[in-house]
Amino acid sequence: MLPFDDRDGVIWYDGALVPWRNANLHVLTHGLHYASCIFEGERAYGGEIFKATEHHQRLHKSAEIMGFEIPYSVADIDVAAAEVLKANGISDGYIRPVAWRGSEMMGVSAQKTRIHLAIAAWEWPTYFTPEARLEGIRMTEGKYRRPDPRTAPVHSKAAGLYMICTLSKHEAEQQGFNDALMLDWRGQVAEATGANIFLVQDGKLHTPTPDCFLNGITRQTVIDLARQRGYEVIERAIMPEEFAKTQEVFICGTAVEVTPVREIDQYSFTPGEITLNLMKDYDALVNRTHDMAAQTSTSAA
After folding, report:
1. pLDDT for residue 296 is more than 50
2. SS3 of 153, please?
3. Domains of the chain, residue spans
4. Superfamily for 130-286?
5. pTM score, two decimals?
6. Of residues 81, 4, 9, 13, the one with CA closest to residue 43
7. Does the domain at residues 10-123 carry the CATH identifier 3.30.559.30?
8. For this structure, is 245 an active site residue?
């Protein structure tokens, strides 16, 4: 495994491209100790970042929720992310913008810390193995739950909110599963550890209301694609017992794209027509976006 701190290439760091191995921060950085850190996960297809502006708008929104201001505009970050991708010679890959509080203050209060921004990119073909994505992944319920919105900044993509995801995914993998199902503090179905979830019941799509977790950009894209096909999409509270009357389940996110689920503990599902259609539609959309961008670039030249 190639460690992420020892690679060739460049990372955009506070306004400039720096050698990959030099993109460092101090051990007493506030973002490390107090989780005052936000990030985005993006994918590039054919050299084009899918919905880059939407991701960078959400990055700004996350910063606002976390009480700090990123010193670069959304347009600046759009340009920087494209620059990183090109500088590293990546066509199909993953892009990670991350913003955090610096090391000027060390304590709970950190009003005068500098806000840093870095953007890295690397090749990342698939999140799960190709076999798992085709056959469907296996999931088990995690022991940690998504918190009440009154207890955490749940609508920010904040680093600290992923601690329970890491713990839950590790435990699931140790038991032979691919991922964990996260319930919320009420016992309702919420999401996977890094993706939103959809259920197919009698030809209709059901998905949890995102009131205590991110309304994912891929989630919104899949809902649009489903409605274009004429599928009814219902956002509502879902209890785990409903898996007994569910025919298909899939998860979706930037990293996982659209991935079917074949098992959640005692419940089994078969990737069916709706799941397979939305997988196909999503794959076509991200590649069509690349093709349209390439045509625009050629016309401009």
Report:
1. no
2. coil
3. 10-123, 130-286
4. D-amino Acid Aminotransferase, subunit A, domain 2 (3.20.10.10)
5. 0.92
6. 81
7. no
8. no
